[in-house]
Amino acid sequence: MHYTFPVDIKTLTISKGTKQTVYYPKVTNMTNQQLQRYINHVIVVETQQLINKQVGHMPTTVEEMLGSYEIKNNQRQVLSLLLSNYTYHFHAAHGMTYLKSLTFDLKKGKKCELKDLFKPGVDYVKRLSDIIKLQIKQRDLPLLNEFTKIQPNQDFYIADKALVIYFQLYEITPYVYGFPMFPISVYDIQDLIDENGPLGRMAVNV
User: Fold this and answer.
1) How far apart (Å, rounded) are the C-alpha atoms in residues 175 and 155?
2) Strand ranges in 43-115 using DSSP code E only, listed in sequence order
3) What is the pLDDT of residues 120-171, one digit of tens each?
4) pTM to 2 decimals?
5) How far is 46 from 40, CA to CA, in rounded Å?
6) Residue (of 205, 111, 109) closest to 158 by Cα position
7) Is residue 134 exposed (0-12), middle (13-18) or buried (19+ Cβ within 10 Å)?
8) Residue 8: which residues within 8 A CB-CB, separation 6 or more?
9) Which end of the chain is more exposed for a tag (fewer CB within 10 A), N or C?
């Protein structure tokens, strides 16, 4: 059976010397060229913002930089991807990594914020926060401060039938624990999700 993905992906590279390389995705071969240009523009902007965040006011102290990406979902007219950038500055105790995720609803031709995945007016912040609190307890994660709730625009990506909420380094846990990721099954929040949105499409069994 021949299966086609909503978008084709090719890898582009930004490099400066041998120790500074950033790989980022470019969407190709879409029927909707306007949407394709928009998606690629957003990816380029966010890739550059990660670079700027890492370099800051100290471009001369950058010893090493590696940017990469992962395609988390490319099905059911939903594209969700994760950009990462690791940078080490001269004399730093260790390198620092930042993540930025982007989710596009190809059917509606828009980039999605977390609120766009849910029905209008529902308290998705409380429901997701309660699920995350439970996972923190189950996984015995050490916290820097007591976790109360996620931000309304918390970082997330979609991976098949899961919504993954995540936090940056140092945001809620010590550095050594990496990026805290909290996968939440679409079926656990099915009463809240917009049936015509990305998560609604993921929840349909076919």
Assistant:
1) 18
2) 62-75, 78-89, 96-105, 110-111
3) 999 999 999 999 999 999 999 999 999 999 999 999 999 999 999 999 999 9
4) 0.94
5) 10
6) 111
7) exposed
8) 27, 28, 29, 30
9) N
